[in-house]
Please model this.
Amino acid sequence: MMRRLRAAIRAALCKCVFCAPQPPARNLPRMPDLADQADTQNEKLLEQYRARRAPTGPEPDGQCHYCRQPVGPDQRWCDRECFLAYEDEQDLLRRTGRRHPGR
Ligand SMILES: [Zn+2]
Model:
């Protein structure tokens, strides 16, 4: 009983980090707010990037626009190589003022 009382008095009077009561963590309730703000900002940025990357050019028609292999319903090229080759080809056709037959 006396030991507990002494410990309580020591805890009340002592200012060391072990005995002194810890101040309530004021930042803790704000953490979710900051995380929410960061989430919102990230979503906005992602949306901007997605809008910037919006596909341009030919619509998907079930075939690779370069090699004419079948591709998925939303795909326009088999892979990046075909996409880059298609762009090179289109660039060449644009510069020479010609159009690819059948495209
Ligand atoms: Zn292809």
Remarks:
- The mean pLDDT is 81.
- Residues 59-103 form one domain.
